[in-house]
Amino acid sequence: MADAPKRPLTLRDVSEASGVSEMTVSRVLRNRGDVSDATREKVLEAAKALGYVPNKIAGALASQRVNLVAVIIPSLSNMVFPEVMTAISDVLDDTPLQPVVGVTNYRKEREEKVLYEMLSWRPSGVIIAGLEHSDASKAMLRGAGIPVVEIMDTDGTPIDAAVGISHRRAGRMMAEAIIKAGYRKIGFLGTKMPLDHRARKRFEGFTEALAKAGLEISDQEFYEGGSALGKGREMTEAILKRTPDLDFLYYSNDMIGAGGLLWCLENGVDVPNDVGLAGFNGVELLKGLPRQLATMDSCREEIGRKAAEIIASRVEAGVEGPQGQKIELTPTIERGHTLRKKPKDAAYPE
Question: Which pLDDT score, from 0 to 100, does residue 57 have?
C-alpha cells in the first residue's frame, strides 16, 4: 500500500518500463501502426505489470474524471448483492456520482476484463467485492489513482479501503452458538469454495471453533452452481440419509438452508429438537417461510452505504491516494425457529 502511486499511470510510465518511446507505446495500446511483435509484447507486458489502463476519454476530457463509480460484484443472481447495490445507489443519489455495475461470476480472469474496461473510462472511484484478486487486477487498482473500496470482507489487507465483516469471526460465532445449544453431530452443506473466498473463510472459522470444543464436522455435502431451494432439498436429503444421526446442519447460505428446512418439515423431522438448522445472510425474502431459519445478518446494506460514503467524501475532498481505511462491522445471529436456545437435555452442559 505504501508504494501505490498517488496519480494515474501515464504513457510515460509504460514507456520507461518497456524502454520504448511514448509514441510506440501509444501505437501498441491503440493497436495501430507498424510495430514488431517483440516490441508489442514488451509494451503489453510492461503495461500489465504496472496495471496501466488506456484512457478512452477523448479530447478535452482526457485529463478529467467522469462522474461514474465502478461497482464490481460477483453475481446478480445472489440476492445479497442487489441489496448492496441499492444502498450504494441511495447514497450516491445525493451526489453527482452514478454507479455502473460489472459482474465477475466469481472468476478472477473475468474480474480482470471487467475492471480493465471500467477503468478505461476513468471513473471517479471503484467499489469491488472481496479482497482476493489476480496480480493484474491488483496492479490496475493500485495504479488507478482513484479511491478504491473493497467490500464484504475484512479478513485481509485492502489495497486502499475496506468495508465488511470478518467471515472467520462469523463462522466462529455460529459454531459457538450451535455448541452452546447442545448440538454435537454437525454437518456442513455448501458450495464448493475455491471461488467463494468468503464462504471458505466462514467454514474455516466454523471448524476452528468446533475444534476448540473438541468437535469436528461429522459429514459434508458440496455442490457447484447457484444457490437454490431445490438444491437445498436435495443436499439435505442426501446428507441425512447418509448420516442419519446428525443433529445440526450448517448451510453456507440461506437459500439452500431454506430448501433444507422445507425438506425437513415435509419429512417429519423435528426441527430444532432432533435436527437444528442455520444459514447465512439474513435474506428478507425467507421471512415468509412457515418457520424462520436461523441465520446471520451480513450487514450488507450498511456495507453498501459506508462504501459509497467513503467514495463520495473522498471525491468531494479531492483525495485520490490510498488511505488504508478499514471498517469492520459486527454480524448478529438471528436464532429463528431452527436453533434452540438451550440444550435438549442435561447431557449437554449449557
Answer: 66
Beta partners for 126? 70, 148
Cell numbers 469471526 correspond to 169
Alpha-carbon distances, residue 93 vs 27, 101, 305 (angstroms) = 39, 15, 11
Q: Is the peptide bond before 272 cis (omega within 30 degrees of 0)?
A: yes
Which residues, including other chains, have CB under 8 Å from residue 285's CB and lie 6 or more apart? 79
- Name 155's Cβ contacts closer than 8 Å, sequence gap at least 6: 131, 166, 167, 168, 201
336: left (phi over 0), alpha (psi -120 to 50) or beta: left
Q: Are 176 and 210 in contact (CB under 8 A)?
A: no
> How far is Cα 57 from Cα 31, in angstroms, rounded to an integer?
17
Please state the length of the chain: 350
Q: What is the pLDDT of residue 227?
A: 67
pLDDT for position 224: 77
HSE value, Cβ hemisphere, 13 Å, CA-based, for 175: 25
> What pLDDT score was predicted for residue 166?
97
For residues 175 and 305, give the distance between their C-alpha atoms in angstroms, rounded to a whole number: 29
pLDDT at 7: 76
Cell 431459519 identifies what position? 293
Residues of the chain with pLDDT below 50 are: 1-2, 59-60, 63, 346-350
Distance CA 298, CA 72 (A): 18
276-278 sheet: strands from edge to edge: 219-223, 186-191, 248-251, 276-278
CB 66 within 8 A of CB 121: yes
